[in-house]
Amino acid sequence: MVSNPPYIPSGAVAELMPEVSQHEPRAALDGGPDGLDGYRLLLPEAADRLRPGGRLLVELGHDQLQAVRALASAHPALAEAGIRRDLAGHVRVLDLRMAG
Q1: Alpha helical stretches, state H, 5-96
Q2: What percent of the chain has pLDDT over 70?
Q3: What is the reported pTM?
Q4: Which of the listed CATH numbers 3.30.160.20, 3.40.50.12280, 1.10.569.10, 3.40.50.150 matches domain 2-98?
Q5: Which of 44, 52, 70, 81 would give a disulfide with 97, using CB separation of 3.0 to 4.6 Å?
Q6: CA distances for 56 relative to 6, 13, 42, 70, angstroms
């Protein structure tokens, strides 16, 4: 599974560059008050649907790694398999693997 959930905190959507905030649907950007609502929905679904050895790769906001790791830890069958960084060196993808 690969996902780019909305991860911008609601209060920060208006502060995005106009080429983003004015051309992307708000639902594609707004991740709720803390930007993590999409992960709260996605992680339990992935834990229920992935087969053993299956992987979930999720895009993250540049400062969300620890928060998403904490949410993933509530699903012990999902183990961290790695991270991917963008060209600026920020962690942008969390790679989770289904145990089994």
Answers
A1: 18-21, 26-29, 37-49, 65-72
A2: 100
A3: 0.92
A4: 3.40.50.150
A5: 81
A6: 16, 26, 10, 16
